[in-house]
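User: Predict the full complex structure for these chains.
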Amino acid sequence: MSSGYIVTILTFVAIYISLALSLNILTGYAGQISLGHAAFLGIGAYTSAVLAVHYGLPFWVDFLAAVVVTGMIGTILGLPSLRVRHDFLVLATMGVNFVVVSVFKYVDFFGGAMGLVNIPAPTILGLTFRGGAPYLTLTAIYALLTLAVCWYLSKTWSGLAFHAIRNDEDAAASVGVGSARYKIYAFGISAALAGGAGSLYAHFLGSVFPDNFVFVESIGMLSMVIFGGIGTLRGPIIGAIFLRLMPEMFRFIQDYRFTLYGALLVLMMLFQPMGLLGKDSWLWKFSTRVWPGYRTSKREEMP
Amino acid sequence: MLILQNLSDALILACTYILMAAGLTMVYGVLKVLHIAHASVYTVGAFIGVLIYSWVGNFWLALLGAMLTSGVFGVLIYRSTYFYLLNAPRTVPLIASVGMFVMFTDLLQKNFLMGPYQRAFPAAGAGLPAIQTTWLSLTPKQLLILLVTLGLLVMLYFLLTRTRLGLSWQAASMDREMAAAVGINLNRSIAANFFLGSALAGAAGVLVGVYNNSVFATMGDLPSYKAFIIIVLGGMGSLPGAILASLLLAIVENFMVASIGYVLPRDSIAFLVLILMLMFRPNGLLGRE
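Assistant: Here is the predicted structure of the two-chain assembly.
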């Protein structure tokens, strides 16, 4: 394995860590299961790609536009969640994914099925980040930024409100937590972070195709969150690293990547619904018993 | 004549939607689970249908074999996952269902099963005649779909209303615990429910495969997604609602495409209908409340 290959894999791992963490805000913290997160990745990637290819704007404009546009679209797509709960919302997010992909595919402005190619490498302050270690640094910084946002969120009033909504929406509403407002927040923040990851994704690959953002990709992200431990900070990170690295390490798994993702979802639901390192998982209980000094934050221990 | 042609096309489209949605709405009625893996059952049905057809060359045998196989496949899905998740929060079986769907779709695309290419299903109308009257014109294939769907629906109607099994489903959909308390063997009843619902999906797969003369591994994705929209539209768990919604969706789709053309991809229409419906009538057209 060449070092370039390893750097490429690690770059993807970093992008997917940001994606899994951003999905976790919506699904883990606020409890709104989403089967359409790849749509937000796609919207971010296409926004960035369109601005760079059609209008020749510099990277930082593309990136910020991707974050803002995806955040806004996420906020709008969050509106149905006010009327719709549980399984119906899941259907709606799945539909968002189908529609977004078909818009990319059938609208000529977005390049149709041929996608958009020749997206330039980003240039920041005169430095060009063309693949390799510099780009890995860029994506790693973004992953850390996402982590910081998630950590900060879990410490704020909004974080508490998300928890309340997840546990019981009606009870949350009865003690004065405006569930509508916080659900929209969760959608917006989650989408905006995914949009930024999308921008990095597009500029890294240099091309975007509708098929990069299909429904199964969303399921891949959901698997990362659920496998690692839904609603925690450590879970999505571990899930993203594990589920991205494992197929690369074993060629056999690469061909059966989505079979693995699907099977893991089923097995986790049957045996460890909170994930491998989730709050009540045996592995986490075991490790906190072995190293009692290493405790979770107070927030996570709340029932 | 264009309108009539559109109407009969819509009718045929609706038939395939009905078969798909009927199984889903039955499962939802009893288990309250959005059974996303239903798409895989549909594809497996079509696949088995093609295999049997290329083997014996008889459409009816292929249909029967496909229905039986997908029925058994559905029961296996139930017994291996949902059975253990009956009392879990509703998102748990849902995520498991998504997992199964992704897993089966990926496996079906492998070369030892269907492979990533399309297969032809050249059972041209199973020897039925074409029908050409002033108000209806159907090709043999369309007549076949119409007849099979009507036959299955009549059978389903009698099962649901005239047999103990149908009654036990109704009871279970009202209150599972209460139904068990009055002596209904829930396990057997739910398994039979899955068998029948999955067999209907298998029949839908075969019919669509014959109609388009093509069977491929991801053919279930869009129909199953539309079937979800249909059962939301019709009111979750309501069979007459599902039939009505299938007809409505098929007609709207056909006429939108015929009159407006491609403003939006055809398949997004269903999605827009779903969003509007969820926003303004969350309980569906014929829902309970």
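The longest helix of chain B spans residues 2-31.
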